[in-house]
Every structure is written in structure tokens, then in C-alpha cells.
């Protein structure tokens, strides 16, 4: 038994909690050295989410993967794939895991599947995974469609990751989404690279929703239960229009100091000092 001065490894405490959840409700397994999967079986709607384990355990033992709030609120089932670090989920074991589930009819055993992810790498992986789940409903925030210089010559972020060639093998995310029922892409159009990546998701079943000046606050807002619960509900019903998505997210964004700072800075840059002052007066 450790004494009171022995530090507790937050990663181990977090993993133990997820293992207990998996034991009680489904499973919690390693998929190779840098990936893991949590399955929680509840209802006949499945949320397939992609997340960063290292970001979660930094928030403490109680941190739960993206989509868990929808499990609690709607009694959805959840399959969360998590990476340790920015791996782009490019691992043969992860791909084999998804292929085996598809082959075994796992995804078809649910009435519907929602695919959720926030951020460039998780969004990249989630879009590619959609090739295995025809008819899914997909919601991605700030995803990257491609990393390589040929499909995305404008992309200057994550150059050090190109050696792993996460775009290979095809299909890229936009093509992998061809057989889903609906894709909604949330993005900040004031960031040129984010907007250019969003523009690559141009299939007929894809809706792009621009939330200007949201920046990193957008991913934070999507992950909050107060927005994820209604977002997932509307996604499942096929009613997640751009107007509805903005209505849901703006309520959360307006309480985010980073978002308000970006709005005020943008207003001052345009000479709208009165608008900037109004934004700053509404800081929580």
C-alpha cells in the first residue's frame, strides 16, 4: 500500500477507471502500444468516437472520452478509440480492428451509428473510418482531410508527421465519407488552413458549418455535454442544420474566454471599438 506521500500516476488512475467501466458495460482493450478502445453497450444507437487519451488523463481520473455524455443522456452505446499522442490512428492493428468489426457485422447490429471527432488528427481518422460504416451520421470539428503536400499543398502544420504518411493507404476522408448518410463539418473559416481543409470535404452528403473566430474554442465547445448532447440528438434525427448547429454552439462559445478574446480582437482590427467593448462587457 503506497504511503500518503507517494504520487499517483494520473494515467494509471484514469486507465483503471475506464477498465472498470469496460468490465461492467462492455470492454476496455489495448489495440497495439499506442491505441485503446472502450466499448459501453447501452442502446441501439452507437457513437463511434476518436479521442486523445493523453489529453483526457491530463484532465484527471474523472475525464471521459468524447461521446460519453450522449451515452448518459440518450442511453446510446459507445465505442471510443483513443490514441496516446498524435498518431493519426495510422496503425495496422487499429485498421484491422475496424475491419474485423465491420466484417463481423458489429456496426450493422445497431439501428444507427454516429461518428464523432474533434481536432485535426482525430477528425482525419474518423473520416477515414467511415468507409467501414455505410449509412452512418458523421460530425467532425476542425478535421484535416489530408496531410500530404500533394492533396493539401497549403498545409504547413504537422510537417514532422508527414514521414508516417497518414494519408496512405487511400481513401482519404472525403472519399471515405461517400457512403455515409450525412456529414457535418464544423470549422473556423477565419483560419485559412482550417477553412481549406474543410473545403476538401465537398461531397453531396456533406454540410460545412462556419463558426468564425471560434479557433480552439470550437473543439472545446463541441466536447462539452451541454452542446454534445443536443448536437448528437439532432445528428441522429437528421435535423442538424447549420442554423441549429450554430444555435447550440454559440451558447457555449459565448462563455469561452478564448473565443470572446478572438471576437474582440477581430472587432478592434476592423476599427469597431464599440463592438469590441460590447464583447468584453459580456465576459463571464
Strand order of the largest sheet: 1-2-4-3-5-6-7-8
Helix-residue proportion:
40-55%
Shape field: globular
The value of Rg in angstroms is 19 Å
Low-confidence stretches: 1-6
Category from helices, strands and their pairing: alpha/beta
* Beta-strand residue percentage: 15-25%
Q: Helix count, per DSSP?
A: 12
Outline:
With 284 residues, the chain is an alpha/beta fold. It has helices spanning 10-25, 53-57, 68-74, 92-103, 120-129, 173-176, 192-200, 217-223, 225-237, 242-253, 257-269, 273-281, and strands at residues 26-30, 35-40, 45-52, 77-83, 112-118, 137-141, 182-187, 206-210.
Keyphrases for this structure?
about 280 residues; alpha/beta; 12 helices; about 40% helix; globular
Task: Please describe what this structure looks like.
The structure is a single chain. The protein has 284 residues and is α/β, with parallel strands linked by helices. The chain contains twelve helices and eight strands. The chain has an eight-stranded mixed beta sheet with strand order 1-2-4-3-5-6-7-8, with helices on both faces. Strand 5 (112-118), helix 5 and strand 6 form a beta-alpha-beta unit. Helix 3 (68-74) crosses helix 9 and helix 9 runs antiparallel to helix 10. The chain is globular, with a radius of gyration of 19 Å. Mean pLDDT is 90; it is low at 1-6.
